[in-house]
Design a protein that fits this description.
Elements lengths: L9 H14 L4 E7 H9 L2 H4 L4 E8 L1 H4 L2 H11 L4 E5 L13 H6 L3 E4 L3 H10 L4 E8 L4 H14 L4 E8 L1 H10 L7 E5 H7 L4 H8 L3 E4 L3 H17 L4 E3 L11 H10 E8 L3 E10 L8 H4 L15 H5 L31 H8 L14
Parallel strand pairs: 1-2, 1-7, 3-4, 3-5, 5-6, 7-8, 8-9
Antiparallel strand pairs: 6-11, 10-11
Helix pairs in contact: 1-12, 2-16, 7-8, 8-13
């Protein structure tokens, strides 16, 4: 593959690939945690220009993808109630629940609105004092500060008609879960730069040391990802188990203290279900007891909703780096962005959506791709 003008710095990218090729002496399996990195890898063909000994596998760093099925069902139930305005980021509307998705609720007359910030939901609650406004607070550490601020803003305004359905998850416990699983193939990690912008990477050295797995924090440009892979390969080849920062223009070791402070003020740790993976201890956040009045699971009777994952979706294995999307029998046939079986085919960061959009020619899929 040629280094096209799509690369911000094609010459630098080519130099990084050549440096990796000179260094590698044996096969290595590297997992990129973030779904945004997965899409960049597929879009720019990084997996094709790297030496064949490097296998990139895709991790659970897509918040839409790992939101548990039962939480989608709770969202659908709440959004279907009269007098409710349900607000969410756009990615969540097509994520399938057990029977329907939020888009179907809206098509049936439910007031489901796409917002671009949780503070938009707060404004909607101000403008509609006679209706309950719920925001679907989904995401990793990246979106947690803004979601926490929406709760503090609602409290300051005295809003009694605003609540959040929280489905926050954290990256480090997921890395523990992957590395401790019996079938783990991961030998090195590319950590998500945007998560580390908020949280820093002080939690990662103990993980690297415990499992003997080097970790590199990296960004989302092709050259960022290639630099992250280069540093990871250098550590693997030399036997060094460290944490490297390939994204220093944005990420610091300690992260953003003000953002972390607002998270701690509003949220507390909890066990959390991950779609397709299961329960990961201490891997999520929930509202602190003093903010229970803004908890949609307290305001609405949804806590008893429990559901089972569909057996014909292998998203859990894909999110753990055990399989690739094209290894799913339903990929591109019974599962497409228009008719998804799982969230990994819906999300703009989902691995299945990325393969469907950018790598269809590899798997004899000749139909025009549908944007995820």
């Amino acid at each position: 593959m040629k280094f096209t003008t799509e690369f911000r710095d094609a010459k630098l990218a080519q130099g990084l690939v050549e440096a990796i090729r000179r260094k590698i002496t044996r096969p290595w399996v590297i997992m990129e945690i973030c779904g945004g990195q997965t899409h960049a890898i597929l879009r720019y063909g990084l997996d094709e220009i790297l030496p064949p000994g490097i296998e990139l596998v895709h991790g659970p760093g897509c918040p839409v993808c790992v939101t548990p099925l039962e939480q989608i069902d709770r969202a659908v139930w709440i959004a279907s109630q009269p007098g409710v305005i349900f607000t969410s980021f756009g990615d969540m509307l097509r994520v399938p629940g057990s029977d329907k998705d939020l888009f179907s609720v809206r098509a049936a007359g439910g007031d489901v609105r796409v917002v671009y910030s949780p503070l938009d939901a707060v404004r909607i609650a101000q403008q509609n004092p006679d209706r309950q406004v719920v925001f679907f607070a989904v995401g990793f550490e990246t979106t947690a500060p803004a979601n926490a601020m929406s709760v503090l803003q609602a409290q300051a305004l005295g809003l009694r008609n605003f609540s959040v359905l929280v489905s926050h998850v954290r990256v480090p416990p997921a890395m523990h879960a992957i590395l401790s699983s019996p079938g783990c193939r991961v030998q090195g990690f590319l950590a998500a730069g945007h998560v580390c912008t908020v949280m820093g990477y002080h939690e990662y050295p103990p993980i690297a040391g415990q499992y003997g797995t080097p970790i590199t924090v990296t960004g989302f440009e092709p050259v960022d990802i290639l630099r992250g892979i280069q540093l990871t390969i250098e550590m693997l080849e030399s036997g060094r188990v460290q944490v490297a920062n390939a994204y220093p223009r944005v990420v610091t070791f300690e992260g953003s203290r003000p953002a972390q402070d607002v998270i701690r003020r509003v949220f507390t740790g909890c066990d959390r279900q991950w779609r397709g993976i299961g329960m990961i201890p201490d891997s999520g956040w929930k509202l602190r007891p003093e903010f229970a009045e803004f908890d949609a699971e307290v305001r609405f009777p949804v806590s008893e909703i429990q559901t089972r994952e569909p057996e014909d979706c292998i998203a859990g294995q894909i999110l753990q780096g055990l399989k690739k999307p094209f290894q799913c029998p339903a990929f591109g046939t019974r599962c497409t962005p228009e008719h998804p079986l799982g969230a990994t085919m819906v999300s703009s960061e989902g691995a299945c959506a990325g393969y469907y959009r950018y790598h269809r020619d590899r798997h004899n899929l000749t139909e025009e791709p549908v944007s995820a």
